[in-house]
Amino acid sequence: MSRITLDPITRIEGHLRIDVEANGGKVTNAWSSAQMWRGIEVILKGRAPEDAWSYVQRFCGVCTTVHAISSIRAVEHALDVEVPLNAQYIRNIMIAQHSVQDHIVHFYHLSALDWVDIVSALKADPKKTAAIAQSISDWPGNSEKEFKAVQDKLKAFVAGGKLGIFATGYWGHPAMKLSPEVNLMAVAHYLKALDYQRKASQATAILGGKNPHIQNLVVGGVATAINTENIATLNVERLIYLKTLMEETRDFVQKVYYPDLLAIAGAYKDWFKYGAGVTNYMAVPEFPEDTKNTKFQLPGGIVMAGNIAGMRMVKDHRDDYLIKNIKENVTHAWYEGNGTLHPWDGETKPDYTDFKENGKYSWCKAPTLDGKPVQVGPPAQIMAAYAAGNPKVKKLVDGAVSTLGISMKDIHSTMGRLYCRGARAHVMADLALENLDKLIANIGSGDQTYANHTVIPKGEYRGVGFHEAPRGTLSHWIVIKDKKIENYQAVVPSTWNAAPRNDKGEMGPYEASLMGNPIADPSKPLEVLRTIHSFDPCIACAVHTVDPEGAEITKVKVL
Amino acid sequence: MQVLIYGAGNLILSDEGFGVHFVRHLEKHYHIPENVELYDGGTLGIMVHFKFEEADRVILVDVVQAKGEPGDIFRYEREDIMLKNIPVKMSPHQIGLQEMLLISEMRDAPKPDLTFFGIVAQSLDPGDQLTPPLQAGLEKVAAMVVEELDKVGIELKRKEA
Lengths: 559, 161
What we know:
B: two-stranded antiparallel ribbon; 7 strands
């Protein structure tokens, strides 16, 4: 038996430690441990509720927008505030564009190198690469010349010994299976993708005033001034520029990212058999299209034990079942006691004990829905939309299932998770544009309202802000007392997925997803990375101190 | 010449937010010419590669885990980063500054001159205030940035108190 510790494993933020035990080339036990104190809610106490959205954007350096959205919705829910249509559409566009940006970066920059061997791309025939790329997409950038140029550049880097930045890549690993040509295609698109994540980010900034850290929210709407005549506000010229950026990004997602994903998935079909883990899923509906948050463009739902057909709809953000049954347990987390609390009554009292595999071993609490561990993220939303009969999602998923020769139950897997994120990006890119059309039409009809001015009243109020973020269901829970924040808890997607065991000893989704995974070489646990990265791990609120003295921060320890 | 002053960090983990506090400090106390952009980059890493590709001169301000007392300031040039005087994995984000700069090179993007001022932190606990040595560091780094810009003919004048 071997024991492998990867610390940290995260590609974006935070310190995530994964421990696995392997027997006979397979994972037989696993632990997921967040290595950083997550007590940042504490600094919200006593502050003005109307400012919370601005602070919480710093919970995480990457998904700043999502925390702002959840927070403002929590206050609006607590005070029963309506949000004008223009504000809903503007928020929807920012949400959708942020998702597109996040998914592009995840696929190419944070997970592709688990599947793509850069060094192998040196051996590719650029002409054949162009032929493959052109056979799966009419994207104009797929010429032999472009691929040759990338390959020459790579050769120069390798010759100059400069490929060290990708030192964590397991080049030549036996689990790498793409042909040199497909590897070259993926590397070229990896570099190109940066231009499109930037366009998505610019689109968010045009509406949000700034990105990262949007500036345009107020309780009751947005502070984006709309005036089709005035140059300093959101005028026709800005709207047209926004549309151009969003169309270019959509084309990249649908003509490059999605076909690349299908090509990679087709070469790694065995990965539809590994990594399912917890098959209870939850997604909340997203993209409200009325002022009272009762109608949504994408449905939410709860799938238990992998039963997609038996999905229970989540109609809106006031769903009683969700509000009552989301709780957090600390039996295996470094907090006092072993209790289960509702987020409105949530406590953050640290009790560090060192890593005790049968005791407390993570700073992550274990969230539960009705007492059960739940996986959140793109698979949950795609399954809910599929089960609810959303025509676009149905067409995409049915198409992929038939192209790849898989069945719906294969979606519960490492590759299924990557697939669902790509399908979600496809949907998000279209939804952003649809919401822009709706915004323009609504302004055109004469409605220039963008906020319901709201003064926080005296008294005690409780609210929850749900948001279906790129990594999954996010909820911010607020208790307001006499115009101040009395309690604040964020139950974030990565807490659901990176959870340690709960009070019944049930594994969290990361842990469960590793069980039965193959391990070809314990000193190069690429298979562990593939499965964990498929969740897009991002332990919120990380530090990111530069360490010029420490050599390798990431350690792989094999016992 | 377009200059980018990039403040990195997480504002709610006390000294970790130094870079962000720093750009705010400059904005408050100095007249900033039009060709100098102050940028609160948060902890975005690779997602802001384009800011580095667009500028002619970049000054990056962040905390570093170097040997020294809290508030000690270290200065690095692009070569220090590229020639591994700073190791490959500098950041828990894994995709760090060096990866970002190399990816930009691979993309054939322009390579701006880069200076990196790093300050040693005292506390990374939750909180939105700097500790005293880092608070004192704001003006020290500001003076170094003023000198840096002076070399390229840009004057950063202090506002009247």
